[in-house]
């Protein structure tokens, strides 16, 4: 899906500054991807952070509330609001810790476990649609580069 211009290096002197800024390009792409995901989750009355929390709890049942806040990179008060909504929807529950009664372990409910698979399929379809301009090799390379920027590669 590459055009000849895709491989041509940008000449900073002849290119508008924003078109040479990696951060700006990442943000614009992230906004497009995010909006696709928002739209795909709307019928479930869920936002991307709530979806992400459900996926994390599926992978790590019993995760402590403070740990989930760190994983989502949000402040504890924001997490409380997020969890309140997931509990109201019957998707997750807080279980008071046995050793530290102030701490809560988080679990998906049966309804949450049943829904998370469907949500992941919906999110994957959204991801594919939003990244459709990329062929498989480009998508793989983009993911590799993003992991590198995020410090996940050696």
Automatic annotation (TrEMBL):
Cleavable signal peptide: none
Gene Ontology molecular function, alphabetical: DNA-binding transcription factor activity
One Pfam family named in its UniProt record: MarR
GO biological process terms held by the UniProt record: response to stress
SMART domains for the chain: HTH_MARR
Coiled-coil spans in chain: none
InterPro entries attached to this UniProt entry: HTH_MarR-typ (IPR000835), MarR/SlyA-like (IPR039422), WH-like_DNA-bd_sf (IPR036388), WH_DNA-bd_sf (IPR036390)
Domain of life: Bacteria
Gene3D superfamilies, per database record: Winged helix-like DNA-binding domain superfamily/Winged helix DNA-binding domain
Protein name: MarR family transcriptional regulator
